[in-house]
Amino acid sequence: MERGKATPPIVAADGTVEKAGLDVLLKRVAGEVSNKGDSGGLLKRIKDFNMFLERAASALESKKV
Q1: Which of 19, 40, 42, 51 is the most buried (most CB within 10 A)?
Q2: CA–CA distance, 12 with 48 (Å, rounded to integer)
Q3: What span, in angstroms and rounded, lies between the C-alpha atoms of 60 and 7?
Q4: Cα–Cα distance, 21 to 15 (Å, whole number)
């Protein structure tokens, strides 16, 4: 966290200020990808979509006969 505090902030195009430290960036990305996010994270959404595709494929295969 010390490295994150020592780096200068980045000002985005919309005027928001973000810390540029690698540790801060890794925590943010990990929270968005993992199941720790509010919506379950990107990984959970991908798994849910994959299960939907598997059910759809199974339904289509059963009607194929």
Answers
A1: 19
A2: 33
A3: 54
A4: 18
pLDDT, tens digit, 9 for 90 and up, residues 8-33: 666 666 666 666 677 777 887 877 77
Residue 17 DSSP label: E
CA distances from 21 to 3, 30, 44, 55, 63 (A): 6, 14, 27, 42, 54
Distance CA 62, CA 51 (A): 17
**Phi and psi at residue 19, to the nearest 5°:** -80, 145
The stretches of 1-65 forming alpha helices (DSSP H) are 2-6, 22-33, 41-64
Residue type, 33: V
Amino acid at 27: K
If you count DSSP H runs as helices and E runs as strands, how many of each does the chain have, helices first?
Answer: 3, 2
